[in-house]
Amino acid sequence: MASEHSAAAGAGQPSALVRFVQFVPLGAVAVVLLDSATDFFPDDPLAGILTPTRLALLLGVIALVVPVRGRPRARLRDFRTRLDLPIGLLVAVSAATTYRGGHPTAPLRGLLTVIACHYLVVAVRRTRPESWRAIALLALTGVAAAATSAFSQVTNETPTGFCRTGLLADVACDAAGDGVLIRATGTFANPNLLAAFLVLLLPFALLATVCVDERTARTTVVVLVVIGYGALLTTFSRAGYVAGAAGLLVLGGAYWLAPRIADRAQRRLFAVLGTLALLGAAGAIWAVSRAGNSLGVRGQAWEAALRLAADNPLGVGLGRSGTAISAAAPGGRTFVHAHNLWLNWLVEAGPLGLLAITAVAAIAVYCAARAARAKSVIGTVGLAALTGFFLMSMMDHPANLDRIDALLWCTLAVITAETPATWRNHPGTTPTLVPTQPKRPRHGPQRVGAAG
Question: Mean of the per-residue pLDDT values for the chain?
Fold first, then answer.
């Protein structure tokens, strides 16, 4: 009897092969997220254009789609999202400006790599609804790695090459004497990149509190998140401070305020106000770019970017904005990018590229806002992360770094995977399994079901 019971129990367990194949896609996601935090993979390719990150992505996608007895494989519908059309336009425009201009293809391959990250995460979330717990713990691990490295630089007074004497003035690290403040860079080469990383990932790290039920374990998670926000302060990034504060405000406001905005007229009012705010910010950028050096090097970069966009309607090519702006801006200063995500895409890929990336951002924010209004924890943290990051991207372009870019596209994937792929839910056109959010955000066991 005992042997029969053991055999019956073993028959209900997945085989070792099934467990391994199920692990590989999530393992690939873990590799991408941890590499975004620590840059532990070498940048040199293993062979040809196959880098370690691309190899991990390739193995992850193969493990998702290969048929294995005892495990349903991922279908095309599991990869589809509402971002498919703008992503397709973005890739088409990027390929056109690259090949038409005869530019190097490495930036285009980089774009395709982060988009592959996006669809891998989407499929993992669709096929493994419980994977939100793993993603939350990976976010917490990444925050802890970058934040503790930043604090180590400050507490040990390790020179980073970036200094500040106050929030309004940068100084040379060797010119301010004892009053100089070290700007932490953590696992990045620039304090603004560290700030952007933390702004984007900290809300998802807070999601890890839902993964544990025991009080002291939740306290540990909260302590690590507090350390992460403390590390944000050590960057002395003005845009990072504003973006981090905005994310926290959205995190609270989306949880308590959004579910109460049930009237359609109120939602339209908020949508109009948000659109006007974006248009006003764009108008302000245009105005200050014409106002001399009112914003220092950023004003010079924006003014040069607008001139380049007018002269190059098809764009100057992916990855070439820094060189083009450096040549067009007065003073001989060297720029790496346009110091604005939207202007950078306008310069590199023209108006169609700007339209595509704007559509990606708008749809993702819309999906997160709708989920947050429905008391979705993932929607709430996603809305906070995107709000802070896109706000910071008005004054900088952290996604110019491939590690931050990969993290951004993974964030977009986590959010859009919770939403049906089409705007109208017709039978047979949307995934039959749409992962739901944890029911209670603070304590108790979580119930995972299917959204209609």
Answer: 82
Integer Cα distance of 44 and 48 in angstroms: 10
Contacts (Cβ under 8 Å, ≥6 apart) of 86: 356, 357, 359, 360, 363
What integer pLDDT is reported at residue 167 of this predicted model? Answer: 56
CA of residue 60 relative to chain centroid, distance: 20
- The pLDDT value recorded for residue 265 is 61
Q: How far is CA 281 from CA 253, 273, 391, 400, in A?
A: 22, 12, 10, 21
Which residue, 102, 111, 54, 104, is CA-closest to 353? 111
**Better-predicted residue by pLDDT, 248 or 445:** 248
What tens digit of pLDDT does each residue of 81-126 get?
Answer: 999 999 999 999 999 999 998 999 999 999 999 999 999 999 999 9
CA nearest 100: which of 371, 343, 352, 398?
A: 352
Task: Name the one residue in this structure whose structure tokens are 């939602």.
Answer: 267
Query: pLDDT tier at 53 (50, 70, 90 boundaries)?
Result: very high
Separation CA 396–CA 388 (nearest Å)? 12
Residue 104 φ/ψ region, left for φ over 0, alpha for ψ in the -120 to 50 degree band, beta for the rest: beta
254-311 pLDDT tens trace: 666 655 555 566 556 655 665 566 566 555 555 544 444 445 678 888 889 999 999 9
Count other C-beta atoms under 10 Å from residue 159's C-beta. Answer: 11
Length of the chain measured in residues: 452
Cα(390)–Cα(76) distance, integer angstroms: 30
- From the CA atom positions of the chain, what is the Rg in Å? 23
Query: 68 in helix, strand or coil?
Result: strand
> Are 60 and 120 spatial neighbours (Cβ–Cβ below 8 Å)?
yes
Instruction: List CB contacts of 425: < 8 A, sequence separation 6 or more.
Output: 452
DSSP notation for 45-62: -SBTTB-HHHHHHHHHHH
Q: What is the 3-state secondary structure (H, E, C) of 217-254?
A: HHHHHHHHHHHHHHHHHHCCCHHHHHHHHHHHHHHHHH
Residues 6 or more apart in contact with residue 362 via CB below 8 angstroms = none
- Which phi and psi (to 5°) does residue 373 adopt? -65, -25
**pLDDT digits 0-9 by tens, 372-428:** 877 888 989 999 999 999 999 998 999 999 999 999 999 999 999 988 877 765 444
Cα separation, 167 vs 162, in Å, equals 13
Predicted confidence at residue 266, as pLDDT, reads 59
Indicate whether this model's pTM tops 0.90: no
